[in-house]
Write a structure and sequence with these properties.
Length: 360
């Protein structure tokens, strides 16, 4: 049985139970890099000369709102010329991180991989690149775990995507009239079939995948009988059938059959189960936005703040999944590069003195 590079050291446990070995590794990984990158990165939080401050910049299609056709034209500008998987992995390692998580498809529906399910992807832009494949290869060679973010409960591209949230899960654009299915024409299962095909494509085509990280939980928690209608119980089984070690998360837990819980920014006391499964706290180096926001240049959190977050997460105990939003061309903001390198140096110095922050 071949043990993935990121799980080396867990060989004996892997032979007996690969998923348990992966869970044990994850519980001690402590620190990971989150990357929010997509078409929204090109706008940097600005549309038609207006700074859009409602929600993070990755929500700009919904928050501005931007009509479907206008948003689609952003693909003509997507080059990803500075997206460098090697450099991303080297930076993560330098920072003391053990894994990387990439937004393969955010709420806007734009895919960063070569998918057979839609033409709305990075391979059909001037970039002509499969960014998931590039990052998967670099992570594997460098011994980093790769998690793949996928927006499951929100999709502003598919006509049958969930629409039972308050406020609406879909952009409210007069120009989009008739674009999304409503009433008797609405069939959630059509969307779920599509999402399942995309997720399983990611699981099967890019190996080894450490985990699938699902987002958009509000699309189902705000829906009558949403947990059952999400079909996630069946989806999790199909994901796990693709690989013996793959882990599944859906934010703070949708079905509570997830392998770990990943609440946003902090754990809200009393809202999550205490069943011995690992926790992960995700937060971002920008003041609030996850995707790149030009108005936040020079205002990103620095190394002192990151060290505080690591210490706080370690006391829970939980991993810290720390986000950076690459700019439109795919480059990681230089202030985040500087911060991550400084954090890595401090962690190495602390470890050499036996004073590393608390570990999960």
């Amino acid at each position: 049985m071949n043990v993935p590079r990121y799980l080396l050291g867990y060989d004996t446990a892997y032979v007996h139970d690969p998923r348990a070995a992966a869970s044990e590794w994850f519980g001690g990984a402590r620190f990971g890099l989150f990357l929010h990158y997509g078409l929204y990165s090109l706008l940097g939080g600005v549309y038609q000369g207006r700074s859009i401050d409602r929600k993070g910049s990755e929500w700009i299609r919904w928050a501005a709102p931007i009509p479907y056709d206008a948003y689609a034209r952003l693909a003509d500008r997507f080059t990803a010329e500075c997206f460098d998987a090697e450099a991303i992995c080297d930076l993560a390692l330098d920072a003391g991180m053990k894994y990387v998580n990439l937004t393969t498809q955010h709420h806007d529906g734009f895919c960063l991989w070569d998918t057979a399910t839609t033409d709305f992807s990075s391979v059909n832009t001037p970039a002509k690149r499969d960014l998931v494949a590039e990052l998967a290869d670099a992570c594997d060679r460098k011994g980093l775990g790769l998690f793949l973010y996928y927006s499951h409960g929100r999709d502003w591209w598919h006509p049958h995507s969930p629409d039972n949230g308050e406020p609406s899960c879909r952009p409210d654009c007069p120009e989009d009239a008739g674009r999304f299915a409503t009433g008797d024409d609405y069939n959630l299962d059509e969307y779920l079939d599509f999402a399942e095909a995309q997720i399983l494509e990611l699981c099967r085509n890019y190996r080894p995948v450490a985990g699938i990280w699902l987002d958009g939980i509000g699309g189902f928690t705000n829906m009558a009988d949403g947990v059952r209608r999400s079909r996630c119980a069946e989806l999790y089984d199909k994901i796990r059938a693709t690989s013996p070690h793959i882990l599944v998360a859906y934010k703070q837990g949708l079905t509570f059959a997830e392998d770990f819980y990943a609440p946003e920014r902090h754990i809200r006391e009393g809202t999550l189960p205490s069943d011995g499964r690992p926790y992960e706290i995700c937060t971002t180096l920008q003041p609030s936005s996850w995707g790149y926001k030009a108005a936040d240049d020079g205002k990103h959190h620095g190394p002192d703040w990151v060290m505080e977050q690591l210490e706080a997460a370690g006391k829970i105990p939980a991993n810290l999944l720390l986000n950076t939003g690459p700019t439109g061309d795919g480059a990681i903001p230089e202030e985040d590069v500087t911060t991550l390198r400084e954090v890595g140096q401090r962690l190495r110095e602390a470890a050499s003195r036996g004073q590393a922050p608390p570990r999960p």
